[in-house]
Amino acid sequence: MSPKIEDVDAAYREHAIPLTVRACHKAIDEWGGLAGDITHVVAVTATNAGNPGFDHFVSKELGIRPDVDRMLLHGVGCAGGLSILRAARSLLQAASCEKESAKILVFACEITSIQIRSELDAMVDGQPFGIGPALFSDGAAALMLCNDCGMEDNLRKVYSLGPGISKVLEDTEDHMAYRMTSRGKPTPQRSSRPHVLNEIAGFKLSLSKSVPDIAMEGIKSLFSQVAKSPQGRRSHSDFEWALHPGGLAMLKTAQEDLGLTTRQLRASYEVYRTRGNTSSVAVLAVLDQTRRYADGQKDVVACSVGPGMIMEMMLLKRHWHKDRASHNDSDGALS
């Protein structure tokens, strides 16, 4: 039997909150500030829909003030890592306009392994067994973002955030979705007879083979919009790429179609090799890996894709420091 919805929710909260707290402690320690100095919290998860959200319990464990501005995103799947960066960047800009300090804790967590029981239940019922459990893994990532008013003299920049853009690719909803299930069957999006709540089992991934090709069209479209400069349009080869490691097919398709070298995608390949796809966490893990290379381009393109299908892209600039290792393992924290 697949788990009941309360089982899925309880398992998420049991594992996600301590995992996220550990990632946040690493980010705050590297930042060098205090949890009490944090002014905003921006978080995302695609594998839980409970209220209050998991960000509430994480903030409580960290000792963050109860009056900070909070934002929790849901429903954006693998695109979520860049969705929260884009949202946090907007908060930084708004605070700067008011000449106020902004010190934003940003974090993501996904516990995808709890969904495998729904896939097994579908197989027992004679339904197709999805590839979701083979693609996804669990993880958490956290980072600190500050505007100029919130930067202390002793803080070292890791990245500067550039422009970001989000785009929904029309008529692609059926190519990627993460839907509630009942006895292993996806719950219809439009139904005259809604399921009884206690029949709901969990989440089930729907994924088509066309996703890499569709995603590539979206990547090319978004890049043409964000890569403009006063000197003219920049090329794909001018950047290090932090591409969401959604699968080997997606990475290889991107490398071939964009004319990139393996070196330009090395962080994405490394994260995919060592961790797989951690949904919204994955692109943040790739950025964490990218910052550890002491060579390559300073300019970085980060890109992720989620259900909808929704595309996210952002330009970043790396700041190198002489004592930064070029090959350390990623610890899930950025600052």
Q: What is the H-and-E element order?
A: HEHEHEHHEEEEEHEHHHEEE
Radius of gyration: 20 Å
Placed side by side, the strands forming the largest sheet appear as 2-1-3-4-12
> Total helix count?
9
Instruction: Tell me the total number of β-strands.
Output: 12
Cα distance, first to last residue?
A: 43 Å
Structural class: alpha/beta
Mean pLDDT value:
85
Largest sheet: 5 strands, mixed
Low-confidence stretches: 193-198, 324-335
Which outline best applies? globular
Folded structure, characterized:
The relative contact order is 0.18. The chain has 9 helices and 12 strands. The chain has a 5-stranded mixed β-sheet with strand order 2-1-3-4-12. It has a 4-stranded mixed β-sheet with strand order 5-11-10-9, with helices on both faces. A 3-stranded antiparallel β-sheet has the order 7-6-8. The protein is globular. Helices cover 34% and strands 23% of the residues. The termini are far apart. A hairpin with a 2-residue loop joins strand 6 (176-182) and strand 7. With 335 residues, the chain is α/β, with parallel strands linked by helices.
